[in-house]
Amino acid sequence: FFFLSGYGLYKGYEKKRIGMEFWKKRIFYMYFPCVVIQFIFFLIQAVKNQKFTMNELVFHSLFAAWFIDVILIQYFIFFITGIFAREKRKMWVTLNFFLSLFIAITFWKSGFNARWYNGLMLFSFGMLIAYTEEKLITLITKNWNVYFAISLVSFGISGMVFTTYKSSFTGINVVKTFSGMCLSMITCFVFLRMKLKSRVMRFIGKRSLFFYIIHVNLLAVIGNAEGTNRVFVVYSVMILTFLFVITLDRLKFGKLLGK
User: Fold this and answer.
1) Total-model pTM
2) Can you tell me the distance from the alpha carbon of 36 to that of 207, in angstroms, rounded to the nearest whole number?
3) I need a surface site. Which of 42, 72, 164, 237 has the fewest CB within 10 A?
4) pLDDT digits 0-9 by tens, 103-148
5) pLDDT tens string 40-57
């Protein structure tokens, strides 16, 4: 998700200057809808457990979703570096990468979970791939099998190393970040050969963040129920997630808050 966010945002602003309209779209069409969704689902869990305070409710709605916090930090980095670099795209990508790296190291040194700095670096990696896309496609097309094999083997080895030694020493989390980059490249290689033009896939892609947030909250609500069958949980969450997202889309949920 973070890799594709970095790729998509850069492509969206590749030929235009970034301004305050950037924040209008992100705050009203992304952040506020996500906060509302978090609030509703946490309220459901709180009422079910009959134990919550207003402070917990507000905190959970605004800050408990780590992926929202990470994407907002990366939006801020994207915006600041874009303003500073102006029309210089290479400078923009470079500044974004090193500022993200600095914050990622800060998170790592502060003892944050690896997902915080993984998200930051994968976003920057997505921007880098978007910036060098034409050159990369030319390079990869000539030796697709070789580069695909290298990425696949690198992903397999790094994943195995991380799984084996993840509790051994702190620096092992860097391997997880590298593994994520390899997986992102594998995805890019696959879609160079296999074009997805399905309306369903486009629908899911544009609403991927909502899909993620809703399914995570549904898992918390349904999965924590005592005696619930795992197969029932999986299929229920899948079906309900689609129904929720489709309903929100029909109601123009994000745009409604944007108005």
Assistant:
1) 0.75
2) 16
3) 164
4) 988 888 888 877 888 888 889 999 999 999 888 888 888 888 999 9
5) 777 777 666 666 666 666
Rounded CA separation 5/132 (Å): 16
Query: What's the one-letter identity of residue 20?
Result: M
Give CA angle at 115 (71, 32), nearest 5°. 30
Q: How far apart are CA 212 and CA 241, in angstroms?
A: 9
Is residue 193 within 8 A of residue 144, CB to CB? The reply is yes
Nearest of 73, 99, 72, 75 to residue 10 by alpha carbon: 75
CA distance 181 to 198: 26
The answer to whether the CB of 185 falls within 8 A of the CB of 153 is no
Three-state helix/strand/coil letters over 164-193: HHCCCCHHHHHHHHHHHHHHHHHHHHHHHH
